[in-house]
Design goal:
By secondary structure, the chain is an alpha/beta fold. Helices cover about 40% and strands about 20% of the residues. It has helices at about 15-25, 35-45, 65-75, 90-95, 110-125, 155-170, 175-185, 190-205, and strands at about 5-10, 30-35, 50-55, 80-85, 100-105, 130-135, 135-140, 145-150, 150-155, 175, 215-220, 225.
Amino acid sequence: MHTPLKILFIEDHADLAANLADYFAERGDVVDVAMDGLTGLHLALVHSYDILVLDLMLPGMDGLTLCRKLRQEAGSQLPIIMLTARTSPAELEAGFLHGADDYLTKPFRLKELELRIRALTRRASGRLTRTLHVADLEFNRDTMRVQRGERTLELSAIPLKILETLMLRSPGIVERHDLETAIWGDSPPDSDALRVHMHTLRSAIDPTPKSTPPLLHTLRGIGYRLALPDASQT
């Protein structure tokens, strides 16, 4: 038995997307599917996946642009497999230059894709960051232990999810809507819920009186940012 994976498929062909979702769900994996590039990029940024399987020809945003944004702008280490009908050396080279780790030419056997996914995630497991750091704040995602300096922070599930999302995007800004989607999906509670959890997180990270520089910053009307005050934004 393999360890279940959390897989994001970005594929605009409805029948293929359904086949991919059914095949891997039957094997115990957790599957999300996006059928356009913009939705796929949003999911990849606000959720944690073990691997991304990406069609290069997509509406909204093509796969090469999506790869580049994940690698260069978001700093993501997420393993990426390209699905492509293109086989010219120049086109494949472009995919790798934009950040893909492997490719599979359409049409393909689902079993071959599964084997490539298992192999790539095994190789990547040693380089994927399981412990996140922002300044002196540390979050071990395996043990769920959070420390700032010598202090251990006690946080419940929702503040932990907020923290993970902010740390993965640091020093960039995470919009309020993206945080709500990461926590509650498409059914967020009333508008005060996020504010209450952010207050809890801020109280833990940046206690008063402050003996260390504040890390959690509110950008009114936009969202939140986790970084030292002088850190450059992305």
